[in-house]
Amino acid sequence: MPRLPFTAFVRGVPAPKGSVSGFVNKKTGGVNITEKRGSPQKTWQAAVQFVLGEEWAGPPLDEAVAVTLAFGFQRPKSVTAKKRPHHTVKPDVDKLARGCLDAMTGIVFRDDSQVAVLMSSKSYDFKEPGVRIDVYALPAQPAEGK
């Protein structure tokens, strides 16, 4: 079983989880879901899965966890720290987190629904672009009425 807390750093430019579209299939009456093709998300997700596959020792966790995701980007030369001290442009931090959690599914935990606490941030404060992933065990909840 992996030892918690667990920390990993994935190098590369973080890519957000793309938006999906749904449409009704007129023949079957079912709903088809499509994702935008050719996005860098697939490459980024593969990088996260590769690093976690190498560093995570053991089967996916079954219990609730807390996850911290710190995304780092390189500051464009045209943007000074005084002009824009925080990363307030796209990609959206929630889409970055969603893509990263999807990549962690099946490696770190069985399903991303097990993430009971999530903290994510994006900044220019990293020496190189990437994401720092921290996974923590959550204490068991006491039985009600005790």
What brief labels describe this structure?
four-stranded mixed sheet; alpha+beta; single chain; 2 helices; 18% helix; globular; 146 residues; 60s Ribosomal Protein L30, Chain: A
> Segments where pLDDT lies below 50 for 5+ residues?
none
- As for the number of domains, it is 1
Distance between the amino and carboxyl termini: 30 Å
- The amount of helix comes to 10-25%
- Oligomer, anyone? single chain
- Strand content is 25-35%
Number of strands: 6
Task: Identify the CATH architecture.
Answer: 2-Layer Sandwich
> CATH H-level name... which superfamily?
Holliday junction resolvase RusA
- Side by side, the strands of the main sheet go 1-6-4-5
> And the CATH topology?
60s Ribosomal Protein L30, Chain: A
Give the biggest sheet: 4 strands, mixed
Structural class: alpha+beta
Shape: globular
Number of helices: 2
As a whole number of angstroms, the C-alpha radius of gyration is 18 Å
Order of H and E elements: EEEHEHEE
CATH class: Alpha Beta
> On the 0-100 scale, what is the average pLDDT?
89
Quick overview of this protein structure:
With 146 residues, the protein is α+β, with helices and mostly antiparallel strands. The protein contains two helices and six strands, in the order E-E-E-H-E-H-E-E.
